[in-house]
Amino acid sequence: MGVLSDAYGVRVPTAPGTDQPMLRRWMFAVAAGALLVYNALFFAISAGFGVLAVPASALLAGPVLWACYRPLLAWAVMTAAVPLVTGLGLALDSEIVPQPWLFDETAAQLPVLYVLALSSTWRVTAIAFAVTVVSGLAVTVPQDMAPDRLARSLLAWVLALLLAVVLGHARRLRRQATLRIAEEYGRVRLLEERARIARELHDVVAHHMSVIAVQAASAPYRIEGGVSEAAAREFAAINAAARESLRDMRHLLGALRGSDDEPRTEPQPGLGDLGRLAESVRRAGVPVELTVPEPAPSLSPVDSVTVYRIVQEALSNVVRHAPGARTTVSVHAGDGAVTVTVRNERPARPVGNGQPGTGLGLVGMRERVAAIGGELTAEANDSGGFTVHARLPAEDGGDWAARAPAEDGGDRAARAPAGDGGRSPEPPKGDDE
After folding, report:
1. Residue ranges per structural domain of the chain
2. N or C: lower Cβ tally within 10 Å for the chain?
3. What's the pLDDT band for 100 if we cut at 50, 70, 90?
4. How confident is the model at residue 4 (pLDDT cuts 50, 70, 90)?
5. Residue 427: pLDDT band by 50, 70, 90 thresholds?
6. HEC assignment per residue over the chain
């Protein structure tokens, strides 16, 4: 049952990371056509098959073409066709009887066995190889032929078939090893990305916990007229709890960062830094139009850094994969959520090397959005570019428009300034799409 389950649904494997078959089908179509013409001429002129020359040659050429679609079926037809054509030559008493080791039949068997070895397990391949050899021997041994010539011919034929099987199986193993390495690499990068996200979220929480601890410690001295003894004890308890939480988080941070990674003391970038980020991308040659609500919504620190990182990663991908493409970045608030959309058009100039990205940048964005219960889509758009759209749940997202001052016209969209003072923005960074 194991061999039958392995043989069921055998298909040509696809190239890693794509849905395209590993083999170029047009090459097999050309080979099948060449074999059809060559064998038709050989069977008609040398073997004397007459009107049967074309059907006999089609029996050998057809499986070569089918091998790219149904390898096991192609092998089965080929295994039946080889002794059939040889037997037909014997029945017609041809001057030159087609033999399995002659070029006309060997050239048809080799690609079929190669594709079968590439597409199936070693058990299926070994059985197919044995059946192929036995079927060939069944029609050659009974013939009246010099033993030494028969032995040499059979040995060369078997070695040729074995070489095709070994090459096909070796390529199969190499592909499987490549997929395992790629899967392991992707898993490691995914864990690294999650650790990086955890570190950044830790930095956000630690920064605000520090503020809580400081405010709780200084509150009794800042409140005019002083506080009661009970209130002072409450502030002291808040300060102690905040400091204990900070100490525990620092231990966690040390485990996440490693011994050589120093903790960061500055706050993480957020929604207010998008203008400087867009300006840095404009300086890199990408025309970016940034639209954000005015006044800017009051996001939680985690949501704010998530919005920034999504835009940063998406813009870095535009710089890398679509240089010069007109890009729009929009942030909208409402219905209890904040939506982020980064859309670029077709690149204004060809991409440098044309190599596809690794996809790890998108993995990082999806991990960030999933960590806070949001949704993210990234796909090609109708203009030939790419669109990244994220929707992040926000507890008070529906009230942002209501909180806007009346003189500002509510939730008014405005373009971010080309640049401003303050600390320098982080340049776009990240992995390929």
Report:
1. 2-144, 190-257, 271-415
2. N
3. confident
4. low
5. very low
6. CHHHHHHCCCCCCECCCCCCECCCHHHHHHHHHHHHHHHHHHHHHHCCCHHHHHHHHHHHHHHHHHCCCCHHHHHHHHHHHHHHHHHHHHHCCCCCCCCCCCHHHHHHHHHHHHHHHHHCCHHHHHHHHHHHHHHHHHHHCCCCCCHHHHHHHHHHHHHHHHHHHHHHHHHHHHHHHHHHHHHHHHHHHHHHHHHHHHHHHHHHHHHHHHHHHHHHHHHHHHCCCCCCHHHHHHHHHHHHHHHHHHHHHHHHHHHHHCCCCCCCCCCCCCHHHHHHHHHHHHHCCCCEEEEEEECCCCCCHHHHHHHHHHHHHHHHHHHHHCCCCCEEEEEEEECCEEEEEEEECCCCCCCCCCCCCCCHHHHHHHHHHHHCCCEEEEEECCCCCEEEEEEEECCCHHHHHHHCCHHHCCCEEEECCCCCCCCCCCCCCCCCC
